[in-house]
Specification:
The model has no long low-confidence stretch (mean pLDDT 94). The chain is globular, with a radius of gyration of 17 Å. By secondary structure, the chain is of the alpha/beta class. Strands 5-4-1-6-10-7-11 form a seven-stranded mixed beta sheet, with helices on both faces. It has seven helices and eleven strands. The chain has helices spanning 31-40, 57-66, 82-90, 112-125, 166-178, 186-192, 212-226, and strands at 3-9, 25-26, 29-30, 45-52, 72-77, 99-104, 127-133, 140-142, 145-148, 156-165, 198-201.
């Protein structure tokens, strides 16, 4: 299957006390190295494109080399927004690409088998995203007051990768550009044009590295997997 993975890690890591989270040590590698390894070992992924800050690209390439990442086909600088960053990455995908998998580089613990499952679901429905059911009761609040309690059974925490047929995703990008829309979630691009996105259930270990404490949690998860 010709699936191109676009791994986005061009953020400023403002909540990581000035440190670039994707370059932090994790397990026997780094955050980005661990994420790259998951896509490298997924048979459905044909190529990997990394979108990062310009100054981080040389180090990312070095990390990829040390990790034996042979599917890395290109790196490019990010844009002013996440959506622009993803679009920069998509410009580098192969012409033969059938599916585009967009992943947050700050989610290094995604499992290869879950990537494969989401790819298969995207083939059926046109789009799919990894996610997990919420565990807590969610309240809608306005001006400090609870206004509604959505049924928990229909609520999911959305993760990445988010995977789409190339034609469908391009239609979503065109729609967003034509209407000056800027989305923080790739599913919204497809939802905006009426496309279907399937929720592929992953697991709760696919966490996003956001604060320094998350590194310790990720290390604990990796240790548990090793055991």
């Amino acid at each position: 299957m010709n699936t191109s993975a676009v791994i986005v890690c061009a953020g400023n890591s403002t909540r990581m006390q000035g440190r670039n989270k994707i370059l932090l040590p994790l397990g026997g590698s780094t955050v980005i190295g661990t994420a790259l390894a998951a896509f490298q070992s997924c048979p459905e992924i044909a190529e990997i494109i990394v979108v990062a800050r310009e100054q981080d690209i040389p180090e990312i390439k070095e990390i990829a080399g040390k990790c034996g990442i042979t599917k890395l086909s290109g790196c490019t600088a990010g844009g002013a927004t996440r959506q622009e960053s993803v679009m920069n990455g998509i410009r580098l995908i192969s012409k033969e690409t059938e599916l585009i998998a967009v992943h947050d580089g700050a989610r290094p613990l995604v499992k290869s088998e879950h990537i494969s499952r989401a790819v298969k679901d995207a083939l059926v429905f046109g789009g799919a995203t990894l996610g997990v059911p919420v565990k807590d009761t969610i309240k809608m609040v306005d001006d400090g007051l609870i206004t509604d309690t959505p049924p928990r059974s229909s609520l999911y925490i959305t993760q990445t990768p988010q995977i789409f047929r190339k034609k469908l995703y391009f239609e979503g990008i065109d729609f967003a550009l034509e209407h000056s829309l800027d989305f923080t979630d790739d599913c919204q691009l497809v939802e905006a044009i009426g496309g279907k996105v399937y929720m592929t259930v992953g697991d709760y270990t696919n966490i996003k590295i956001t604060t320094p404490e998350d590194i310790a949690i990720a290390e604990a998860i990796l240790s548990a997997r090793a055991e």
